Amino acid sequence: MNPGLRAISACLTLLLGTASAAQDYPSRPVRMVVPFAPGGGTDLVARITAQKLSERLGQRFVVENRAGGAGGVVGTEAVARSRPDGYSLIVVSGSHTINPSLYGRLPYDSLRDFAPVTKLVAGPALLVVHPSVPAASVAELIALAKARPGELSFASSGNGSPPHLFAEVFKSMAGVDMMHVPYKGNGPAYADLIGGQVNLMFPNIVASLQHVRTGKLRALAVTGRTRSRVAPEIPTIAESGLPGYDLSSWFGLLAPAGTAHTVVTRLQQEIAAIFLSSDVKEKLTAQGVEPVANSPEVFASELAAEVETWARVFKAGNIKSD
Fold this sequence. Notes:
44% of the residues lie in helices and 17% in strands. It is globular, with a radius of gyration of 22 Å. It contains 11 helices and 11 strands. The strands form 2 sheets. Strands 2-1-3-10-4-11 form a 6-stranded mixed beta sheet, sandwiched between helices. Strands 7-6-8-5-9 form a 5-stranded mixed beta sheet, with helices on both faces. The protein is α/β, with parallel strands linked by helices. It has helices at residues 3-24, 41-57, 73-80, 95-103, 138-147, 162-174, 186-195, 205-213, 261-274, 278-286, 296-317, and strands at 30-34, 61-65, 88-93, 114-123, 126-129, 153-156, 179-182, 200-201, 218-222, 249-256, 290-291. Helix 2 links the parallel strand 1 and strand 2 (61-65).
């Protein structure tokens, strides 16, 4: 056979084989790794998604919790080293783009070692203060912080955690000085915030609303671009004193680098269809998040931009890991 025809034939065989693999996918159970303990936001979103994918595609999507080590590194590395065949996936949170700056050296590359599938959901955090803080709005909080530089304190679940970084961006944009008090997890941070040992925090909106509604904390604003459907009466930070502020927590789905684009595309399309259903939307909204299901290309661009953004925040704030 002519060498040119042989090359064309080989390409056609490869393309047909790839298309066939995508059409047959999945032909056996799929593992969806959550690199955190059961019960958290990542786990809840993963289980909703896995259940619906199982129903649509006729194969089990099994959630596997691989907690261990900070920031989900252990479970993330396991998927990075898995075969790129679409049968090992990982559901990650915003910590995936924070970890390169927080830890410096990771056993994987957060961008190069993964094929982004889609950002599943996104939702704001909530800026809350202890009721003793004499500020009823973001504008009043900024004025108070400027009048008392270095005196106000904010809690977080640890150095480099989203609540910490959301506060660092707030400090930078508002031009204020506040003291960071890191805790080992949200539980002790909430305890001291409710007890008045620290003044404010940027926690998960659903978890903190229960304390707001009992009067233990005061909500000032949500961190996202728009108001949350969980608490539409609470304004955004941007509209209540700090224009341009827009940060949200998110969860997304990744596959190992090298996974066939046709498989990645099919997963994204199936998830987009799942998120159109009213029952799924209601379940997600109850967790304080909204469905996204953007394209692999858009998600990849967002991941790269976030890695750069957090690198700048870490450098500006001289942030170190615990």
